[in-house]
């Protein structure tokens, strides 16, 4: 992995997208001072201080879009969860790629594709992630959803550079195989940490809500919902409410 450190930036995703042509494949653009971070569904990602990680992995696996690329957020999500476990905390994955501890969010991922055109070509994938590593409960309370941080869960302060290195090393370990083999490679480990399976859930999919039992995860990483009429729906995108 190549490392590209920015002293201060509005958003590492935005910066990576606007410099996509100059950035090499497998580069992690990171900062500890992100002033206007963005999350999924037009949410913002709050700057909770410079002892936390705000980063974007730039990938250029090929020039043409393939289905497996949409599972890269789940791959990164599992990698981050496994690194969190090294600190003796117990993270859970909320499909598709949120990480929570005791129902409080500790990490989120925002994937964006830059330079896509109608032929299916693109310039690069930007996998942005934020991890709450060291902060106070007072600061976390200002976030608009329940949130926690690793220092609180693990009871130790966390070396941010070391954490980032662990994530990028682990990400590289199986990345090439993941691109070849797809979600199936990590399905078992992903499911082990899934917090939502066999529970009644409501999932927001664009402007509709699908409710039912979260009955499983398919070999492609999609969520299988069985509704009250016993009808099955496979969701490729959405947000568990
Ligand atoms: C979410 O849970 O909604 C996704 C949050 C993603 C936040 C990260 S922080 C680094 C990168 N730059 C951004 O502006 N967003 C992502």
Number of helices: 6
The percentage helix is 10-25%
SSE run: EHEEEEHEEEEHHHHEEEEE
Structural class: alpha+beta
Cα end-to-end separation: 35 Å
- Average predicted local confidence, pLDDT: 96
Radius of gyration: 17 Å
Task: Say which molecules are bound, naming each kind only once.
Answer: biotin
Strand count: 14
Largest sheet, spatial ordering of strands: 1-2-5-9-8-7-6
Q: What fraction strand?
A: 25-35%
Low-confidence stretches: none
Largest sheet: 7 strands, mixed
Shape annotation: globular
Question: What does the model show?
Answer:
With 241 residues, the chain is an alpha+beta fold. Helix content is 24%, strand content 30%. It is built from six helices and 14 strands. The protein has helices at residues 12-18, 72-85, 137-140, 150-154, 160-181, 187-192, and strands spanning 2-5, 27-31, 37-38, 44-45, 53-59, 92-94, 98-101, 104-114, 124-131, 200-205, 208-217, 223-226, 232-235, 239-240. The strands form three sheets. A seven-stranded mixed beta sheet has the order 1-2-5-9-8-7-6, sandwiched between helices. Strands 13-12-11-10-14 form a five-stranded antiparallel beta sheet, with no helix packed on it. Strand 10 (200-205) and strand 11 form a beta hairpin. Helix 2 crosses helix 5. The longest helix is centred in the last third of the chain and has 22 residues, at 160-181. It is globular, with a radius of gyration of 17 Å. The protein starts with a strand and ends with a strand. The model has no long low-confidence stretch (mean pLDDT 96). Biotin is lined by residues 11-13, 37-40, 43, 45, 54-56, 98, 108-110, 128-130.
């Amino acid at each position: 992995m190549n490392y590209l450190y920015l002293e201060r930036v509005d958003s590492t995703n935005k910066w990576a997208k606007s410099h996509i042509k100059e950035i090499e494949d497998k580069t992690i653009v990171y900062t500890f001072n992100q002033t206007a971070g963005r999350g999924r569904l037009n949410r913002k990602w709050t700057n909770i201080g410079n002892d936390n990680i705000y980063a974007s992995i730039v990938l250029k696996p090929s020039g043409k879009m393939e289905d497996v690329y949409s599972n890269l957020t789940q791959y990164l999500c599992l990698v981050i969860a496994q690194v969190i476990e090294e600190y003796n905390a117990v993270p859970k994955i909320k499909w598709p790629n949120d990480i929570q501890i005791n129902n409080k969010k500790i990490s989120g991922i925002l994937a964006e594709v830059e330079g896509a055109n109608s032929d299916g070509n693109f310039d690069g994938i930007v996998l942005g992630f934020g991890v709450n590593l060291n902060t106070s409960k007072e600061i976390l309370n200002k976030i608009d959803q329940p949130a926690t941080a690793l220092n609180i869960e693990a009871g130790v302060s966390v070396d941010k550079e070391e954490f980032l290195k662990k994530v990028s090393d682990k990400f590289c370990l199986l990345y090439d195989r993941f691109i070849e083999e797809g979600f199936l490679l990590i399905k078992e480990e992903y499911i082990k940490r899934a917090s939502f399976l066999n529970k009644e859930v409501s999932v927001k999919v664009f402007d509709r809500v699908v409710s039912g039992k979260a009955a499983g995860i398919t070999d492609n990483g999609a969520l299988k919902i069985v509704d009250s009429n016993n009808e099955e729906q496979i969701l490729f995108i959405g947000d568990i409410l």
